[in-house]
Amino acid sequence: MLWCRGAYNSLENVTPLMVAAGESLKQGGHVYYLSTGSIAVLTTIDASECPPTFGSKFTDVQAFVHNGWKNMGNRDGDLTSVSEKFHLSWDDFEKEALPNLTSADLVLFVDFDDDANPATADIQRLLQEVRKTPANLSALLIARRLQTETKLRSFLTQTVRVCAVVAVPYVDIVPGLRSFGELAAKFALNAISTYAHVAIGKVYKNRMIDLSVSNTKLFHRSVNIVSELMGVSTEEATTCILRSIYLVDDLTSDITERSISRHLEAATTGRSKVVPLALILASTPMPVAQALEKLDAQPIVRKLIAEAARP
């Protein structure tokens, strides 16, 4: 398909953004997406996928949307009052993130290369404010052509550090419906957020080794990861996962007879690095306390697992 080939051919333009996102997370910074219109939904999806997929903190990758919940079109309306995790408007960004930006942070504006965007004035105002901070301000544009010069692209090239353009010949094959452009944006966002987490050791041999054990599918996936990477049986891998969840050296019948839903509740109540700890426990017999010491001593999980993995 021409649109797909065009998108992939220009995805190399996204490489500097991937590297920048990785550097931000390695330095303990954040990646903030700023977006408008339909692409805003995709940035929020990408950011929301990071904690369960990579075991990252909610604040590592966040999305902020022009007009906030009004732009999302969700059935329940404005959810800002639910908790700070539901703060996603540009106003929220200006109040909560903008004053605290550092040189370790990446602020990435993501949108269509469209001079007809009704939010143009707000875009220019907010990006100028971000430019006054030490943060790395960059942009990702989805466009019909790489070389076309629009007013928005001209403004961005003068304002941001990197302006990456992904070309999609048929952005909106159906007038008003930019499905191909949105899919290309999701490709690019996936590349950026995935590389960033690879850079901080959240992936080993193409497996997400620090995923959150937050649902039945991820529980079984965690067991498979431990089994395959450490060369142990499914039964032994399950034992290591449960020891990691409950932080015990020996499993009682009370634990082993619990339903998966109860295991999930325990795994997601103030816990992190359940799978990395289970991988260490599977590498060689040791008490949980000793495995925790190893985990604390080596913050880059991939390196720790590589050392522990059996030949």
TrEMBL record:
One of its GO terms (cellular component) is cytosol. One of its GO terms (biological process) is response to fructose. Keywords: Carbohydrate metabolism, Kinase, Transferase. One of its GO terms (molecular function) is enzyme binding. Residues 21-202 form the SIS domain. This is Glucokinase regulator, putative. It comes from Acanthamoeba castellanii (strain ATCC 30010 / Neff).
